[in-house]
Amino acid sequence: MTEQRRRRVVLVTTGSWVYREYLLASLAEEYDVWLLSDRDPEWATPHIIGHTKLNTADVDALIETSRAVEPDGVLTWDEPRVVHAARLAGALGLPGCTPESALNCRDKHATRTALAAAGVPQAASALVTTLAEARAAADRIGYPLVLKARALGASIGVVRVEGPDQLAARFRIARGADVPTVTELPPGDVLVEEYLDGPEVSVDAAWSDGAMGLAYVARKQIGYPPYFEEVGHVVDSADPLLHDEQLAEVVAGAHAAVGYRTGWTHTELRLTPDGPKVVEINARIGGDRIPQLAEWATGVRAASVAAAVACGQPMDVRPTRGRVAAIQFCYPERNAVAKSVRIDRDRLPASVASAGVIAEPGQGLLLPPAGHVSSRYAYVSVVADTLEQCQADLETALAAVHLEVLSP
């Protein structure tokens, strides 16, 4: 009998090794991966069958290269390339979200417009480009409020404003935030938004022709106010939100509003006193190693399910485990330059599933707003049977991580 060929997936860029290598390794266990990247594969090499170095912002080049590879599906988990990957999949006649729906997620103003038209619960929002427009919007919306760049991620350029006296300085922060972004969007646009009170959560879900497979929920730990730095996450296989009909209805309604029907998304929401409200929709698998927590806690393998959907196969997000997993990222007490980071591994509890050093010697560690995820120097992940044990062991483990900084 002829051995069945493994399905082949084209992956558009890898993202950072710290936050994505485990995901690529998981994907490679079940799929042949051909990488399209702007740089040499480096750490990705053991997990791929081939690689093409090209300008990944050039969709025509992506299409030409991929036709020769003959993939069964297209994936990306790199935020700046979700629209490009959607165009690639469409050109190849492969399953995936439409470029329009990907851009509706990528463009936070487009998200707000679509959700408002559909009546999906969310923050009141206004798009501005000048401080005068921001003042007028703030007067309409009311304080406290949130300013955010139109198309950035990782909470970069997101800041809370308590009153009119803070608006000018914090508007400059939001407007000046800069990372690689979608070329279709103009630079400098800022959203002035209603502040949503309540815990923040993220929902990762698979989608197949409009049907939702809610995979897992992560509870966020936010730090460094007035900024919204994500410093940790918890995934509980028994989280009651997994069976919350109102939450599922809001998530499903939001995706219908932006036209997203096939793929994988990471939706962020606030659990307000009036119910769950959408913060944003990301047309990709969640970051911050959340998918790894989910696999440890629930058994759901996000990369495998996303690849199945991308190849037109059935999605299966049923849990096979019943545990709790959490991650905490380590930040310096103040802006510093790292000399070394040491983890006393003999002091780590047995429940620690992963602990790693992020910062290199000589790396600047700048707290928000000067730095964000680049401020992290290490992380610790714990898996336990209960939330209480998970949190206790995480605190013990963090005491075993040591940062030495260079003297000023």
List keywords for this structure.
D-amino Acid Aminotransferase, Chain A, domain 1, 19 strands, 4-stranded parallel β-sheet, 408 residues, Rossmann fold, Dna Ligase, domain 1, single chain, 11 helices, 8-stranded antiparallel β-sheet, alpha+beta
Describe this structure in words.
This protein is 30% helix and 29% strand. Strand 12 and strand 13 form a beta hairpin. Among the domains are: 96 residues, Rossmann fold; 71 residues, ATP-grasp fold, A domain (Dna Ligase, domain 1, 2-Layer Sandwich); 84 residues, 2-Layer Sandwich (D-amino Acid Aminotransferase, Chain A, domain 1), CATH 3.30.470.20. It is α+β, with helices and mostly antiparallel strands and 408 residues long. Helix 3 runs antiparallel to helix 4. It has eleven helices and 19 strands. The chain is globular and about 65 Å long. The strands form four sheets. An eight-stranded antiparallel sheet has the order 13-12-9-10-11-14-18-16, with helices on both faces. Strands 3-2-1-4 form a four-stranded parallel sheet, with helices on both faces. A four-stranded antiparallel sheet has the order 5-8-6-7, with helices on both faces.
The level of helicity is: 25-40%
By CATH reckoning, the class of one domain would read Alpha Beta
If you compute it from the alpha carbons, what radius of gyration comes out, rounded to the nearest whole angstrom?
A: 21 Å
Q: Strand-and-helix sequence, N→C?
A: EHEEHEHHHEHEEHEEEEHEEHHEEEEEHE
Mean pLDDT: 93
Q: Note the gap between the termini.
A: 68 Å
Proportion of residues in extended strands: 25-35%
